[in-house]
Design goal:
This protein has helices at 19-29, 47-61, 76-81, 84-91, 100-107, 139-150, 154-160, 162-172, 188-194, 208-234, 238-244, 285-302, 324-331, 343-368, and strands at residues 2-3, 34-38, 66-71, 119-120, 127-129, 177-182, 199-205, 251-258, 266-270, 277-281, 314-318. The two termini are 33 Å apart. It has a single domain (2-368), classed as P-loop containing nucleotide triphosphate hydrolases (Rossmann fold, 3-Layer(aba) Sandwich), CATH 3.40.50.300. Helix 6 crosses helix 7 (154-160) and helix 10 runs parallel beside helix 12. The chain is 46% helix and 15% strand.
């Protein structure tokens, strides 16, 4: 395992866990390694920021052993976590060890890679398999072998299981949580990831396109699960394959909304109690309307995939945190560790409360799943 170089240690501003949170974490750990991907076929929904900061919260604050896999050929998560010098050093190599190292042997007919290319991120506290733009070159391989997999072909099924094999190795290394960051598409790479894990979380913005994305995700995931299950039954070794595949177990664990940044403008109203004039920020009506129907649409299109009928599907709302997010990216640290005084003190506090709340609801849904 390689350590990501770090010029200086950054404080994580960790808030101690309550006894309730400690018990919650322990109950979830009894499940063994939990695998979750963060997915939306619509881009620009804050997915990568959510993955990195939630994983950091579980690692730094909850003390969990976390592996994050950058399965997006755009490599935004990798650029967030690695410093510029680390990125330059890694990708200047002729054959860097990345997620591409996991899938490349299959395309050469050599079977699965024996070891995972894991690196350690001290700033974020988790381990990472970094992304690689060359992963996009394997889209055709995964798409072609998927056709073979649906008919029970062993080669096609084994190719489709490339990330299931990665997960199996991660479980052998006793990770508490494995997160996958994914690109915004319903392509072959994301299909292979979704069919390899147990849970998925949908980050979304509150707009009409997210409503369409919910419908697309629900329909497509259900079809993929059924097609793979049929392929396994038709294969020569269905028993062996079922041990590796989580087919039939992929469940929706919840969604996280990205809060709308209010437009400038204010409304003046009078207090019913004091008669004093009150100034409030004006709300955007379209945003309010979509936000009101969002829970209903999630229930309509994803209910069959719910991890539990008792769960609260809304894991949290990512508030606008001003310049904290871009500062976090330039410093390559989680939001709770951003260095800065003045307004950053307040923003760090808000980020701590925000991601602690999302982590709690994420764990609560896992507990009852």
């Amino acid at each position: 395992m390689q350590n990501i170089k770090k010029s200086r240690r950054r404080g994580a501003n960790i808030t101690p866990l309550s006894k309730k949170d400690q018990k919650l974490l322990e109950s979830v750990k009894k499940k063994g390694t939990v695998t979750t991907c963060f997915f939306n076929n619509k881009g620009g929904v804050g997915k990568t920021t959510l993955v990195a900061n939630l994983a950091a919260e579980l690692s730094l604050s909850f003390g969990s052993k976390v592996l994050v896999v950058d399965a997006d050929p755009q490599c935004n998560l990798t650029q967030y976590v690695l410093t510029e010098s680390d990125t330059d050093e890694l990708y200047s190599q002729e054959n860097p060890t990345t997620i591409y190292s996991v899938i490349r042997p299959l395309s050469l007919g050599k079977g699965y890679e024996s070891e995972l290319p894991i690196r350690k991120s001290n700033n974020f506290g988790f381990d990472i398999i970094v992304g690689d733009p060359r992963l996009a070159l394997q889209e055709d391989l995964l798409a072609g072998d998927w056709r073979d997999a649906r008919g029970g072909g062993m080669r096609g099924i084994r190719t489709t299981f490339v990330f299931a094999e990665l997960v199996a190795k991660a479980k052998e290394l006793n990770y508490d949580f494995v997160f996958f960051d994914m690109g915004p598409s319903l392509g072959a790479i994301n299909r292979a990831v979704l069919l390899a894990i147990e849970y998925f979380v949908v980050p979304m913005s509150i707009d009409v396109f997210s409503l369409w994305a919910i419908k697309n995700i629900g329909n497509t995931v259900s079809i993929w699960k059924k097609e793979l299950e049929t392929g396994i039954k038709l294969s020569e070794e269905p028993g062996e394959l079922l041990e590796l595949s989580p087919v039939g177990r992929l469940k929706f664990l919840g969604y996280v909304t990205q809060q709308h940044k209010e437009r400038s403008g204010y409304d003046q109203t009078l207090s019913a109690e004091t008669g004093e004039e009150i100034t409030t920020k004006r709300k955007v009506q379209a945003y309010e309307d979509i936000g009101a129907v969002l829970p209903e649409k999630v229930n309509e299109h994803l209910k069959e995939l719910f991890a539990s009928p008792k769960m609260n599907a809304h894991l949290g709302d990512i508030r606008h945190l001003g310049s904290l997010a871009p500062k976090s990216q330039t410093q390559h640290v989680p939001m709770i560790s951003v260095m800065g005084t003045g307004n950053y003190t307040r923003l760090r506090k808000n980020a701590r409360e925000l991601y602690r709340g999302i982590a709690q609801r994420y764990l609560e849904n896992l507990k009852i799943s």
